[in-house]
Amino acid sequence: VQLQASGGGLVHPGGSLRLSCAASEFTMDWYAIAWFRQAPGKEREGVSCISRSDGSTYYTDSVKGRFTISRDNAKNTGYLQMNRLKPEDTAVYYCAAVMILPSDRKVVANHCGSQYDYWGQGTLVTVSS
Q1: How much is the pLDDT for 16?
Q2: In the chain, helix, strand, coil percent, each to 5?
Q3: 109: Cβ–Cβ under 8 A, 6 or more apart, which residues?
Q4: Which stretches of 13-114 are DSSP H helices?
Q5: Beta bridge partners of 82
Q6: What would the pLDDT profile of 12-63 be if each residue is shown by its tens digit?
Q7: Which residue intervals of 55-120 are DSSP H helices?
Q8: What is the pLDDT of residue 1?
Q9: Residue 40 and residue 42: Cα distance in Å, rounded?
């Protein structure tokens, strides 16, 4: 397994979860990291991504101010902190990584659109009372 997503679960509306995306067999330092989600019956959407080059970030409008993407290169892991969760955040969340040299800022500029090198297996987030 090259990308392992974890941290999903069942949470009440207004609660928080932190998703982790751990990389193995490659060094995440060189990669832009993204989080996508897919709800039942809906298309996959880019939730957030972070550039390796300058640390710039993108958030889809529905999560701005509630979600925070980050990375810990020493731990070879990316994170998605999700606060004030809503039922409409219910989905399977996937992490992905792409290496673009010399700069990967266009991943953020493209709202996480890219041909990703690695995908995690997905972790289910359910927001329900």
Answers
A1: 98
A2: 15, 45, 45
A3: none
A4: 105-109
A5: 17, 67
A6: 999 999 999 999 989 999 999 999 999 999 999 999 999 999 999 999 999 9
A7: 105-109
A8: 72
A9: 5
